[in-house]
TrEMBL record:
Superkingdom, taxonomy of origin: Bacteria
Record-level Gene Ontology MF annotations: glycosyltransferase activity
Name of the protein: Glycosyltransferase
TM helices/strands, residue ranges: none
Record keyword Cell wall biogenesis/degradation present: no
Keywords: Glycosyltransferase, Transferase
Pfam families: Glyco_trans_1_4
UniProt xrefs under PANTHER family: D-INOSITOL 3-PHOSPHATE GLYCOSYLTRANSFERASE (PTHR12526:SF510), GLYCOSYLTRANSFERASE (PTHR12526)
CDD domains, A to Z: GT4_PimA-like
Length: 401
């Protein structure tokens, strides 16, 4: 499907589509799909507008959107000193709050655009319901795109009915793994007949399987943990506890933590506390993902919660096996002892057991990596944003017919 996106010149008129991101940080892997889809539609001549929390105007993805003609509104409210003082004099329901101000900003923007469809992109499965409620209240058609689900994170008790209604009224509910879809149905206590699984884009070539790293004089096994530095989700603390065991201290293995995030200082202090400075280093955030896999032998993901991580897809396409906890949709793509090694849970004993099996079979890693690349190419689409763009255009066409 390389030329399937309907251009504005092929349609009766340009379509109006809004993208709303509730992701908490300035940027993350969970924003690649919506932004790539928005960019594709804007370049095709459609009228696209984006609304996002915590906007970094200089981020390359947002710069590209603006160049393509897609304006971006920051939904993170600035609660001025005057408003903070006023809040002290008002009952809670009349105070200036993040929720109220962001909803007002979004309402104003959507009223001006009058979108034929709005995409609510959530970092998790409930963090965007406040913004989706704007569409519901205005009677605007919308879809939900959820990038993660957490087993113990349910909708707020007092707003459970509202969240159920938001999911019920969505034209589509997109998830990035079957696990996330089914967990959300369980948590909401309702079937989602309009739900389906979509793929995220990735930052390595589709046919980008790399040569195995050349052996070094020290023969150290190089593992890469490519994940946001956020311990509650990504579980770097678990990995450090595994590596602190005497047997792993004695083995020729090194882990590089690639990524950035709010827990970098905490992880650095954990490394120092466990005296792992010779075992673990930081690689920072890099846009050269293929460069990681030219010098590393395998991916290790100790995640507690996931959608379906980009890092897994990218490692597999690059021809590298993965050692990972069974979180989110990881087991939907990773086959234990065929394309990598799957830990039964995100715990220190389970991760240690999987890493032990991987260590014993390390001579076979090149073959596992080759099979990982083959299975990834058989599973993931070449152009995920284009596929989602076509789904959105089809929804608008059906609604108009």
């Amino acid at each position: 499907m390389t030329h399937s996106v309907v251009t504005a010149t092929a349609a009766a008129s340009p379509l109006r589509i809004a993208f709303v991101s509730s992701c908490s940080g300035e940027w993350g892997g969970s924003e690649e799909l919506w932004s790539g889809t928005a960019l594709l539609l804007a370049r095709a001549g459609h009228t696209v507008r984006a609304f996002k929390t915590n906007v970094n105007a200089n981020h390359p993805r947002l710069v590209a959107l603006r160049v393509a003609g897609c304006p971006i509104t920051d939904l993170t409210p600035a609660v001025t000193l005057r408003k903070r003082i006023t809040n002290r004099l008002l009952p809670y329901r009349r105070q200036y709050t993040w929720r109220k101000i962001s909803q007002q900003l979004l309402t104003r923007g959507l009223r001006a655009l009058e979108p034929q469809l709005t995409v609510i992109s959530q970092g998790s499965n409930y963090d965007g319901f406040v913004l989706a409620d704007v569409c519901r209240s205005m009677g605007l058609p919308y879809v939900l795109l959820s990038q993660k689900a957490i087993d113990f994170f349910l909708p707020p008790d007092l707003e459970r009915g509202l969240v159920q209604e938001i999911y019920r009224l969505a034209q589509r509910c997109y998830f990035v793994s079957r696990h996330n879809l089914e967990l959300t149905e369980l948590q909401l206590g309702m079937r989602l007949p309009e739900a389906e699984v979509v793929w995220n884009p990735y930052n390595v070539p589709f046919a980008g399987e790399l040569a195995w790293p050349a052996p070094t004089a020290t023969e150290v096994v190089q593992l890469a943990c490519v994940a946001r530095l956020h311990v509650p989700d990504k579980g770097q603390d678990l990995l450090l506890q595994v590596l602190a065991q005497p047997k792993w201290r004695q083995r020729a293995v090194h882990v590089t933590l690639f990524g950035d995030g709010p827990d970098e200082a905490a992880i650095q202090e954990m490394i120092a506390f466990l005296n792992l400075q010779d075992k673990v280093s930081f690689g920072g955030h890099t846009s050269d993902v293929a460069g990681i896999w030219r010098s590393h032998h395998a991916l290790i993901l100790p995640s507690r919660h996931e959608g379906l991580p980009l890092a897994l897809v990218e490692a597999m396409l690059s021809g590298r096996p993965t050692i990972a906890a069974n979180a989110g949709g990881i087991a939907e793509l990773l086959t234990d002892e065929v394309t990598g090694f799957l830990a039964a849970a995100a715990t220190v004993p389970a991760l240690d057991e999987a890493l032990e099996r991987a260590w014993a079979a390390r001579a076979a890693w090149p073959q596992l990596g080759a099979e990982a690349a083959r299975q990834a190419r058989a599973s993931v689409p070449i152009d995920a944003p284009r596929l989602l763009a076509q789904k959105l255009l089809n929804l608008v066409a059906v609604s108009a017919s």
